Amino acid sequence: MQPIPGEAEEKKAQIEAVIERVQSGDKDAYGLIIRQFERQMYTYCYYILKNHAETEDAVQEIFIRAYLNLHKYSRQVSFSAWLYKVAYHHLINMKKKQGRWVQLVDKCMEEQPVQQITPHDTMIQELLTYLTAEERHILLLKSVEQYSFEEMGEVMGVKSATLRKKYERLRRKLMDRVLEKGEIAHGKIAGSSGVR
């Protein structure tokens, strides 16, 4: 579905007006911002964290941090991009704090036998688990939120050319994984002798 011409600009202007109200002291107006962006933030955080409880806490913390730092927001970037930058940095900090725990869990996982993916798991979920947190950030901002590489650079604090290259590598990685899965299911292993 194509957006109605001018609709995006009108929505951006409405958001900017609400931000001005909040910056002028109307604390209740911030609820409008939360309602506008809550679903997007939840989706973004969930794809990174893979845990509903952690995601709910992260989204709440992101909106608190955004509110407390709203005086730092400037119209040079969209509010949405600024909010994603707040979310990105919060999630990176969360991941750093979880680092030691994750290393311990990873070590335990390596020692356990690899489990087969159940038929109920979707290909997309499997591919997302195959990606690093940074790759999931890039994929979500580019493919789901449809940000330009320049906007993504603002959010992640990385040059747009670097993100372009990382995105291409990420696409190749996913395509290789899809092809590899296809070979296992339909190619050499499954169809080699017809009988196993």
TrEMBL record:
Domain of life: Bacteria
Keyword Metal-binding: no
InterPro entries with a match to the protein in the record: RNA_pol_sigma-70-like, RNA_pol_sigma-70_dom, RNA_pol_sigma70_r2, RNA_pol_sigma70_r4_t2, RNA_pol_sigma_r2, RNA_pol_sigma_r3/r4-like, WH-like_DNA-bd_sf
TM segment ranges: none
Coiled coil regions in record: none
Positions of the RNA polymerase sigma factor 70 region 4 type domain: 123-174
Residue intervals of the RNA polymerase sigma-70 region domain: 34-100
Pfam families: Sigma70_r2 (PF04542), Sigma70_r4_2 (PF08281)
Record's keyword terms, sorted: DNA-binding, Sigma factor, Transcription, Transcription regulation
One Gene Ontology term from the biological process aspect of the record: DNA-templated transcription initiation
Any one GO molecular-function label of the UniProt entry: sigma factor activity
Gene3D superfamilies: 1.10.1740.10, Winged helix-like DNA-binding domain superfamily/Winged helix DNA-binding domain
Listed SUPFAM superfamilies: Sigma2 domain of RNA polymerase sigma factors (SSF88946), Sigma3 and sigma4 domains of RNA polymerase sigma factors (SSF88659)
Family: Belongs to the sigma-70 factor family. ECF subfamily.
Name of the protein described by the UniProt record: RNA polymerase sigma factor
